[in-house]
Each structure stands twice: as C-alpha cells, then as structure tokens.
Amino acid sequence: MTLEVDVRVARGPFGLDVAFRVPAGSVLAVMGPNGSGKSTLLEAVAGLVPVTTGHVRLGDAVLDDASDGRHVPPRDRRLGVVLQDGLLFGRLSARENVAFGPRAQGVRAHRARAVADALLADVGLAAHARTRADQLSGGQAQRVAVARALAANPRALLLDEPFGALDAGTRERVRDVVRRAVGTGVPALVVTHDLRDALDLADEVLVLEEGREVQRGTPAALAAAPGTPYVARVAAAIS
Ligand SMILES: Nc1ncnc2c1ncn2[C@@H]1O[C@H](COP(=O)(O)OP(=O)(O)OP(=O)(O)O)[C@@H](O)[C@H]1O
C-alpha cells in the first residue's frame, strides 16, 4: 500500500509543510540539517504530533484528515516505528521487547517468541535474547528497536536514524533486514544523516531545510548534483 502524506504541522514557531508519496515496497530517505523537521515529520505520520492542515493516508485508510478531524490513534496505525527517544522497556529482555507487539495483537506466546528470536538473529543479537534491555549497549538497543519495529507485521515503517549507533558491518546487516521487510510491499520513511544509507537503501531522498522540501531525487542524482550546501556536504562526506 502507498503512504501518502500532505501535511502542515506547527510546533511553536517551527512549521513543517511537506507533501509526498511512498509507494508500496519502496524507501524514502529523509535528510536535512539538525532542526529541519525530520523527526517532526515522522512523529506526525505516527500520529504523535497533530496535523494542522492536510492528511496522512495509508492505502485505503485515512490516518489523519485535518479537514474533518479524523485521527487514528498511534497504537491503531499498525506502523513499525523507531523514534529518536523510542526507548525499549528496560526491565524486559530483548526478546520480550520484540515479542511485545505481536503479543499485543493476540499472537500466542510461543509464536511471538519465535518471531522475536528470528528477528534478533537477523540483526545479530541471538546471543542477547535474554539480556535485559537496560543492560544492552547503545548499538545493541538500536538493533532491538529495529527488530521490534518489524515484528508485528507493520503496514508501513517509520525509522528515525535507525543505523546511527551502528558500526559499518552491523549497519549493512541491519540495512539488509530493513530492505527485506520493505520487499514484502511495505513503504518506509527512513531518516538518516548518511548518504551511504540512502544510496544503499532508498529509492528516493527528500531533503528538508526549515520544514520545507529543498531537493528530492534518487540518491545517485543527489550525490551527482547537490542542490544546496547541506546536500553538497553530505555528498562530499562519502567521496
Ligand atoms: N517537543 C517539541 N516541542 C516544541 N518544539 C519542538 C519539539 N520537538 C522539536 N521541536 C522543534 O521543531 C523543530 C524541528 O525539530 P526536529 O526534531 O523535527 O528536527 P530534526 O530535523 O529531526 O533534527 P535532528 O537532526 O537534530 O534530529 C526544531 O525547531 C525544534 O526545536
């Protein structure tokens, strides 16, 4: 299903104003300098920040429509979400964190555990299934958060810097896991500061500055012809 976003969002003096579509099975990378509105965009699509005008649609489902006040609560959106402050349940094990979504959907315990273990193995954390989340390193916790986002058959993925704390090899592995999930027909929005992530994973990149689109195109097109000094810097960082 296609994710369709056309929203204005106000956060104090900051305003976000964007419109785009992410087709089923494709990845839109969201890039931009600090404070440009990337997290605000994901939080709006997740239903955590109110949309002032506009709409968010996922396939046939209207998640937000400011014109008639429709708003699906975050927990009913069936999205796989990794947010910046998307903390794990510290007292639960890695496995329990990942199994939480499927369990909440009524999946039986042994099946949810099997799904969690498979995802933890995919992200290289099979040996940490029983480790309490508050005893994981930052990079391990980030991988558990990605596994958790993928566990409950999400209808779309919203990932805010999901690879930020990962070393190069692990980054590639986790990107593979995300790519496989997207390949099942799920649209994904992925915030990253690294054009390498976009080149590897994204079909398109949306660059935000001060809440507005300043450039959009394939990762290769951006790298070849940066439209702003910010894009030129991220392109230079990978050459
Ligand atoms: N909870 C909040 N309340 C009020 N304003 C906020 C809140 N969160 C963010 N903002 C403001 O919204 C603007 C956009 O912030 P946002 O976090 O979306 O940017 P970002 O592009 O994700 O930045 P970064 O790369 O630093 O994560 C900023 O001006 C910020 O100060």
Automatic annotation (TrEMBL):
<protein>
    <submittedName>
        <fullName>ABC transporter ATP-binding protein</fullName>
    </submittedName>
</protein>
<dbReference type="InterPro" id="IPR050093">
    <property type="entry name" value="ABC_SmlMolc_Importer"/>
</dbReference>
<dbReference type="InterPro" id="IPR003593">
    <property type="entry name" value="AAA+_ATPase"/>
</dbReference>
<keyword id="KW-0547">Nucleotide-binding</keyword>
<keyword id="KW-0813">Transport</keyword>
<feature type="domain" description="ABC transporter">
    <location>
        <begin position="2"/>
        <end position="235"/>
    </location>
</feature>
<dbReference type="InterPro" id="IPR017871">
    <property type="entry name" value="ABC_transporter-like_CS"/>
</dbReference>
<dbReference type="InterPro" id="IPR003439">
    <property type="entry name" value="ABC_transporter-like_ATP-bd"/>
</dbReference>
<dbReference type="InterPro" id="IPR027417">
    <property type="entry name" value="P-loop_NTPase"/>
</dbReference>
<dbReference type="GO" id="GO:0005524">
    <property type="term" value="F:ATP binding"/>
</dbReference>
<dbReference type="Pfam" id="PF00005">
    <property type="entry name" value="ABC_tran"/>
</dbReference>
<keyword id="KW-0067">ATP-binding</keyword>
